[in-house]
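Below is the record:
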Amino acid sequence: MPEVVVERLDCRPGMKPVDLGAGTGYFVGYLSESVGGRGRVLALHADRAMVEAMQARIEREGLRNVEPGLIAADDPGLPPRSVDRILIVNTWHHISNRVAYAEKLLAALGPGGQLLIVDFTIESPHGPPPQMRLTDDTVQHELEAAGFEAELVEAPLPYQYLVAGRLP
């Protein structure tokens, strides 16, 4: 149900969203369409093989407004106030120092910016090993500790939750 996630992210034509931990680029086509030709999508990942697979997908799908990139696992590498939206899907639990990482994300968002984290519920039959999973409460508290206003977002996803973070 990627449409549900992209709809909740609320991208509009001309915006600059970033998909952090974009993997092979599952969401890039949806994000590309949502921002149109005047928008620009950054699709970033910390694994070179994933970035190469994503680049192939971008070329195959003719997504001219998507820019893939390699980042460090502990730093999104985004300049201050450089993006409008940040999407992180099934990746938040992999980040080591999540509050410090969230502080970097907060700084990267421009006015009216929003972060959306999608991750597996504790009960999900899919996803990472149980010891790696985080509750939605944990994610909310981490975002709030970094300075975001955070809330759980109701969504019809059977195995995942959505937590939104906004600038205060």
Q: What stands out?
A: The first helix runs from residue 2 to 9. The beta strands are 17-20, 41-45, 66-70, 83-89, 109-120, 149-153, 160-166.
